[in-house]
Amino acid sequence: MTSYLRFFAGHVGRVVLALVFALPLVFMLVSSFKPDDQIFGDLGSLRAFLPVGALSLDNYTGVFERVPAARFLLNSVLISSITVVLGVIVNSLAAFALSRMRWPGRKLVLTAVIATLIVPFETFALPLVWWINQLPLLRVNGFHLEWTTGWMDTYQVQILPLVANAFSIFFFHQYFQSIPKEIDEAAIVDGAGWFTIYRRIVMPLSGPAVATVAILTFLPAWNSYLWPLMVVQSEELRPVMVGLSYFFQLNVSWGQIMAYSSMITVPILALFVAFQRSFVNSIASTGVKG
Amino acid sequence: MVFRTRRLAVASVAALAATALVAGCATGSGGSSTSGAKGDTLTLWTHNAGNSAELDVVKKIIKDFNGSQSTYKVELQAFPQSDYNNSVVAAASARKLPCLLDVDGPNVPNWAWGGYLAPIDVSGSEVPLSAQLPSTVGRYQGKVYAFGFYDVSLAFFARKSVLKEYGIRIPTLDKPWTKAEFDSALAKLKKSGKFPYPLEMGTGSLGEWYPYAYSPQLQSFGGDLIDRDGYQTASGTLDGKDAVEWATWFRSLVAKGYLSKKSGADPNKDFLAGKSALQWDGSWNAAKNAAKLGDDLAIIPPVDFGHGPKIGGASWQWAMSSTCSNKAGAQAWLKFARQTKYFVDYAEATGTIPATDAAAQQVDGYQPGGKFSVFTRFAREYAVVRPVTPAYPYISTEFQKAVQDILAGADPEKALGQATKDIDTNLKTNRY
Q1: Under a CB-based contact definition with an 8 Å cutoff, are residues A120 and A105 in contact?
Q2: Residue-range domains of chain B with CATH
Q3: Cα A170 to chain centroid, rounded
Q4: Is A248 part of the contact surface with chain B (CB cutoff 8 Å)?
């Protein structure tokens, strides 16, 4: 009986905890179908979380009338996806060199990489703007290519600065450490080079770490706001988070904000659900908590 | 092994070549000192992305300008207002400013001092600068850098029926509330038990709202954000006796339960829903309030706390960047835009105060005797522009922090003292 009660109490506790985390999302989704007056009217009761009243798709229609939401979504998917792919490749390669290969100074380099974690992005955002404005750029101009200078107002300026990531390198490093080094030695005896070991042995064994880094790279890329705001001027290149600030003007429409927020939250939730198992496994096995 | 060494050598050469390419090009056109135009095609930035009412007016002026002549073409890029300033600062650091841009009035001195803006010459345009409300012209060190099509005004909004019910006098322009009257009105409204917080002043809104909304009250007490005689110190004005008196009174509004420490997400909605009795708000909500409350709406002048009623002046204005590679084209657009019909369009679209009397004659409610014409008088008679110094953005931030602390319960004298100290240090460091 006691164990049954404990089991029941544990379940109740988990359900309550799940509700605490789920209710804001439910509120957002439900409110996205309600007119503004009703959103405020329902705030004092449980109706705020229920799909009741004058429900419609008006807020979603309003979103598409107010901002080029489809374009922003497409841009964010493109930017985040490429950042994730490049991030996994670049950071795992760096971590592989730091973790598996023996060369003088690697501990110092790892320490330096980890040390950069304490520097907030905002402190070097402006110098970075200056720097990216000095970089060469190959552009398509009509039917020919031309060299210009400066990456402002491009897709790549929203991708490349986010690729190399100290936390991802550290995370991969920790995970690679858990893979026995004897495997490398056996592979070398069989004639494999370092890149073959990386590609054929270490990476196939690091699925959970890849999934975790993918999620941890995707999130900041998707949520990126200050950086694109500083370096992108053309509306057609802007990501979703910059689009969100379009709604905070005079006469704020909270229904539209909820609708837009729902639209940009769904991809994140889908990604997390897809990689949830690997994410949890990987965090547990590396002992790294984000 | 030989193969690996060769691969390493090739990779090293490639890396060196890439580095050299980057370094070589870094001294190229990236260092160009002009921007904002490709030949006669000029770029224009505005803070109105997502705000279709005002954005449509900008688009209309651009379309009319592009159609009116064949030399220049202006192209629009709209940014969301919340971080528009960051975009401009970043572009300025990369020397990528557009030729034409809008700027919030209080920032004009800072952007002019920082070299972002160039002085403009709009003589010969349809509307002379002298016809505008003074607060709608952005000047710095005797030169004109910007002009606006409209201004906004602060006022108290209330329901006449509510004031009457509790025996509260409805103030007029000639006889605004005194501090004693205002305090008494708040006490009566609080005592009624009908309003959790009878006064709504948007304490939940951050950013420029704090200095815009609250520094006029500080000024009416006799204090100020900075000593305007030379703009070299805040000492004695921001931390003087009058300023501390204001801050103590401001804190007491929260302590007595008259004012929420942090207002809701939409204070105007709360006022219209009857949650608060008095709202200190901008003229931009007047039309909405009038539509909802009709003749019951009272537009009340600011309180005279001892040194006359005060409101903030200056709203968004148009300027030309100093790096503009086609200044003639930019000036042409600015001059073209200065037509009364556009002053009218702006005011109608945004519900703001037309910057000229000629435009006011054509805007519903703003004609002499119109229901919103009091705002024009507020702007003309009570407006105090925020300090005309490059230090203003810093002063604004420090004031925001101090007010937040005071609302949260900090000692008013200490909070203002700290802000004053920080502002003075900033002034000395930058030698403005």
Answers
A1: no
A2: 37-150+315-368 (3.40.190.10), 154-312+391-430 (3.40.190.10)
A3: 17
A4: yes
Distance CA A167, CA A116 (A): 9
Pairwise CA distance, residues A63 & A48, whole Å: 21
Determine how many CB atoms are found less than 10 A away from the CB of residue A168: 23
- What SS3 state is found at B278? strand
Tell me which H or E stretch contains B46: strand B41-46
CB B150 within 8 A of CB B102: no
SS3 category, B182: helix
Residue type for position B4: R
| Cα–Cα distance, A241 to A252 (Å, whole number) | 17
Report the alpha-carbon distance of residue B341 to residue B248 in Å, rounded: 46
- With tokens 């064994």, the residue in question is A205
Q: How buried is A144 (Cβ within 10 angstroms: 0-12 exposed, 13-18 middle, 19+ buried)?
A: exposed
Tell me the mean pLDDT in the region B29-37. 61
Question: Spelled out in words, what is the top-level CATH class assigned to the domain A68-286?
Answer: mainly alpha
Is A149's CB within 8 Å of B30's CB? yes
DSSP state of B96: -
B246 — phi, psi (to 5°)?
-60, -50
φ/ψ region of B386 (left if φ > 0, alpha if ψ in -120 to 50, else beta) reads: beta
Shortest Cα–Cα distance, B126 to chain A (Å): 30
Question: What is the interface pTM, i.e. ipTM, of the complex?
Answer: 0.76
- Residue extents of the structural domains in chain A: 1-56, 68-286
Query: What angle (nearest 5°) sits at the alpha carbon of residue B50, between those of residues B44 and B53?
Result: 80
**Strand stretches in A78-203, DSSP E:** 136-141, 144-149
Please report residues of A whose CB lies closer than 8 A to that of B31: 134
- In sequence order, the 6+-apart residues with CB closer than 8 A to the CB of B181 are B169, B171, B303
Residue B336 or A45, more confident: B336
Residue of A nearest to B268 (CA): A251
Query: B235 to chain A, minimum CA–CA distance in Å?
Result: 30
Distance of CA A82 to the CA centre of its chain: 11
Substitution target in A245, A258, A260 with the highest count of B β-carbons within 10 Å is A245
Reply yes or no on whether the pLDDT at A160 is more than 50.
yes
DSSP letter, residue B178:
B
Contact predicate A165/A88, CB 8 Å: no
Tokens (6 digits) for A108: 């110092």
User: What is the Cα B163 distance to its own chain's centre?
Assistant: 31
Runs of H (alpha helix) within B201-300: 209-221, 241-255, 267-272, 286-293
Distance CA A112, CA B325 (A): 43
Res B175: pLDDT? 95
Of A225, A231, A246, the CB nearest to B49: A246
In this complex, the residue of B24, B43, B50 whose CB is nearest that of residue A247 is B50
Residue with tokens 């992005």: A121
CA distance A89 to A163: 9
Q: CA-to-CA distance for A124 and A259, rounded, in angstroms? A: 34
How many residues does the structure list for chain B?
432
Residues in CB range of A168: below 8 A, 6 or more apart: A87, A88, A91, A92, A95, A213, A216, A217
pLDDT above 70 for B12: no
pLDDT in tens, B264-304: 878 998 999 999 999 999 999 999 999 999 999 999 999 99
What is the C-alpha R_g of chain A? Answer: 24
Alpha-carbon distance of A109 to A115, in angstroms, equals 10
Residue A27 touches partner B, C-beta closer than 8 Å: no
Tokens 């001092």 correspond to what residue? B113
Q: Residues A241, A158: contact at Cβ < 8 Å?
A: no
Other Cβ atoms within 10 Å of A1 Cβ, number: 5
Closest CA to B151 of B420, B2, B295, B354: B354
Please tell me whether residue B138 adopts helix, strand or coil conformation: strand
